[in-house]
Amino acid sequence: MSKILIVADHLDGQLNSSTARTVACAAEIGGDIDILVLADSAGPIAEAAAGLDGVSRVLTVERAENAHPLAAIYAPQIAAAAEQGDYSHVLGPNTTFGKDLMPRVAAKLGVAMVTDIAAVHGPHEFERPIYAGNAVNTVTAPDGQTLVGSVRCASYGAVGAGGSAAVEALSLDAELPGHTRFVELQASSSDRPDLQTAGKVVSGGRGVGSEENFKVIYDFADKIGAAVGASRAAVDAGYVPNDMQVGQTGKIISPELYMCFGISGAIQHLAGIKDAGTIVAINKDEEAPIFEVADFGLVGDLFKVLPELEQAVAK
Q: Which superkingdom heads the taxonomic lineage of this protein's source (predicted)?
């Protein structure tokens, strides 16, 4: 039977939903599922993790060095926990932080890793997208060593709450590097939902025209309670910061509703929204590739369409 260790993804004392999605992937593998929480104070995070369905135990490592998520600090501790607990699998979400962290864990354990797991065929056989999502690759990992993997969160729904796993403090003998230290965190603040986990997302592209014009996207998103994203073209043009980019080299998302304005639908962008529930596209170019994947498409000027949509929402 597999014994799976999941690295908890958390920020500001809150467990991110990517952890629950990773648990869903682990449940398909089968076996005992433990969650490892690294923090300076793990209480609320561990409590949330213990409530996830299917989790056997929550292991906590509380130390001052874990106050801020740093891949170089986390990796030796995760590797030590994996070896100490004799885990067959070590999984983490394929988020921006996970892409930095999990390869370090694999290197510490001396094994290769499977990235961006989108489906499970067996304990050591998985599907992962390649070529910007245009093809699916089936990979088989050796079964005689620990398997380190990152999970494509957009491919899994979050498991529900209702579990009652035990919470245990874990003592680790792990030497932490001194060459990496936390200086400060500079992050934009917003009252809007988180882009990576939001149920509704409104995105703008190059067709929006300017940073000033992006206000119409923000206003409409606020009216329907949606997060705001953007295409790479809009980010490269300086309309919005790069943490709003949706696509293969940005955030891969799976909202229930995805509405895009002025986005042509480059392959890179489509790779980030392929798991969305319903895609609504508004573009004045009737031959834009986005219409090939959209569930609903409207050919028109976004600056004329958006006011009409706002009026409809208001009613």
A: Bacteria
**Tokens standing for residue 39:** 């923090």
33, 56 in Cβ contact below 8 A?
A: yes
Query: Any bridge partners for residue 150, and if so which?
Result: 92
Q: In the CATH hierarchy, which top-level class contains the domain 200-314?
A: alpha beta
Burial status of residue 17 (CB atoms within 10 A of its CB: 0-12, 13-18, 19 or more): middle
| CA gap 249, 227 in Å, rounded | 18
What is the chain's mean pLDDT, rounded?
A: 94
Residue 148's pLDDT is what?
98
**Domain residue ranges in the chain:** 3-169, 200-314
pLDDT in tens, 221-232: 999 999 999 999
CA separation, residue 208 to residues 113, 190, 216 (Å): 40, 21, 9
Tokens of 195: 């882009």
Per-residue pLDDT, 189: 66
Among candidate residues 83, 95, 72, 76, the one with its CA nearest the CA of residue 21: 95
- The 8 Å CB, 24+ separation contacts for 264-267 are 264/205, 264/206, 264/207, 264/231, 264/233, 264/288, 264/289, 264/290, 265/289, 265/290, 265/291, 265/292, 265/293, 266/231, 266/232, 266/233, 267/132, 267/133, 267/134
Spans of the chain below 70 pLDDT: 188-189
Look up residue 209 and give its two tokens. Answer: 């025209």
For domain 3-169, the CATH superfamily is HUPs (3.40.50.620)
pTM: predicted TM-score of the whole model, two decimal places: 0.85
Phi (first) and psi of residue 152, to 5 degrees: -75, 100
User: Same topology for domains 3-169 and 200-314, yes or no?
Assistant: yes
At residue 240, the pLDDT reads 95
pLDDT of residue 162: 86
Q: DSSP label at 11? A: E
